[in-house]
Amino acid sequence: MNLLCGEYNNTLDDKGRIQFPAKLRTVLQQDSLVVTRGLDNCLMLFTVDEWTSLNEKIMGSASLFDEKKRMVLRRFISPAQEITFDKSGRLSIPQSLRDFAGLKGECTILGINRYMELWDSERYGKYLDDTEESFIQAASESMGDILL
Hints:
Helices cover 44% and strands 28% of the residues. By secondary structure, the chain is of the alpha+beta class. The longest helix has 16 residues, at 132-147. The chain is globular and about 40 Å long.
């Protein structure tokens, strides 16, 4: 699979469906994705193969007796759902996940290499504003040597 990248804006309709970018669908070459709660109040979307691999790694390292690992299982693995593209290239986002991410109207889809994120566009803009200083510091610390 080619890398997923790009930032796309689309509207979530009244039935909770969003038109998925044709460019990303072409790269995916699949008819379904796995969607779950992400970090920073967005949703994360994975190909079924990528999700299976990630799920196996998480479950393989999880201990039912470790409180933090149980928390990850409950908040990341448990809410995951496989969703299928309709014939128009739309994804129907489950209500519980729409509520978690505050999706309403304008949404932003981010391709981030091996997975994607789905944000409420207003919330994403606020996130970018709120983290600008931290991003500059993180980029200089972690990428300074790479880019020079």
